[in-house]
């Protein structure tokens, strides 16, 4: 089954993506959301969009409060801007 990934939000090293499972005709059969962070934890899979957006906001706050994750996010942002 084909899959389509769409970036919903990305801030402070936290990424929220929509993952859609498509039928052979290209119609969405199933969707879920994946939350990834620079903090040391496994990516989270969330079924509900509202819950995923809430989890994203909480994770951004936690990442900004974490000095290591915050420095990693700053370094990554600088590298992205310089084209590295």
What does this 3D model show about the protein?
With 84 residues, this protein is of the alpha+beta class. A four-stranded antiparallel beta sheet has the order 1-2-3-4, with helices on one face. Helices cover 39% and strands 36% of the residues. The chain has helices at 49-65, 67-82, and strands spanning 3-11, 14-22, 28-36, 44-46.
Short summary:
With 84 residues, the protein is an alpha+beta fold. The protein contains 2 helices and 4 strands; from the N terminus they run E-E-E-E-H-H.
Number of strands: 4
Q: What is the CA–CA distance across the termini?
A: 34 Å
Oligomer: single chain
Gyration radius from CA atoms, angstroms: 15 Å
Mean pLDDT: 87
Name the beta content range.
Answer: 35-45%
Uncertain segments: none
The shape, in one word, is elongated
SSE succession: EEEEHH
**Main sheet: strand order:** 1-2-3-4
The main sheet comes to: 4 strands, antiparallel
The secondary-structure class comes to alpha+beta
Number of helices: 2
Helix share bin: 25-40%
Offer a few descriptive terms.
84 residues; elongated; 39% helix; 4 strands; alpha+beta; four-stranded antiparallel β-sheet; 2 helices
